Each structure stands twice: as C-alpha cells, then as structure tokens.
From TrEMBL:
PROSITE patterns: 4FE4S_FER_1, 4FE4S_FER_2. Keywords: 4Fe-4S, Iron, Iron-sulfur, Metal-binding. It comes from Vibrio ulleungensis. The lineage of its organism: Bacteria, Pseudomonadati, Pseudomonadota, Gammaproteobacteria, Vibrionales. It comes from the Bacteria. This is YfhL family 4Fe-4S dicluster ferredoxin.
Length: 84
C-alpha cells in the first residue's frame, strides 16, 4: 500500500528530504505522497522513513485506497530505480 499524509500535517518538512523515491512534495496546503512513487521504502529500508521522522503521531498512514502487496511494492521499486 502506498502511504498517505493526513490533514493534521504541520508542514515541518521532515518527511520530504527523507523519501528515497522522491514521492513526497508540497501540495496546496500540506505535504502529499505520490502513490505511483511510494514503495513504503521497500527496497531501501526496513520501514518507511517518512513515518519514522514525522513528529505527529499517525500523521502518515497506509492509504486504504492504494492496497498493494509487498511483492507489488518491490516490483514498483525495481521500475522506479530503473533496474528492470
């Protein structure tokens, strides 16, 4: 599943530079995650770095609209990195 930033984001800019896939950018009001680029850090780290650096509890959550298996996330990682 891709991740999603909730409306309680305080725009602290902690998550954006930590994303290895450049999936996070500033939206109209808060930071947003591009689901086509989010692999939940599969292929890079053991856990999503954006969640680990976010100072707001449960601000970055799994997007229920973007359900993906670990295999699908790893396949997306391979494509994004140009390893396919």
């Amino acid at each position: 599943m891709a991740l999603k930033i909730k409306s309680n984001c305080i725009n602290c800019d902690m998550c954006e530079p930590e994303c290895p896939n450049n999936a996070i950018s500033m939206g109209d009001e808060i930071y947003e995650i591009d689901p086509d680029l989010c692999t939940e850090c599969k292929g890079h780290y053991d856990a999503p770095t954006c969640q680990s650096v976010c100072p707001i509890t449960k601000c970055i959550i799994t997007d229920p609209q973007r359900v993906e298996t670990e295999e699908q996330l790893l396949d997306k990682f391979v494509i994004i990195q140009g390893l396919a």
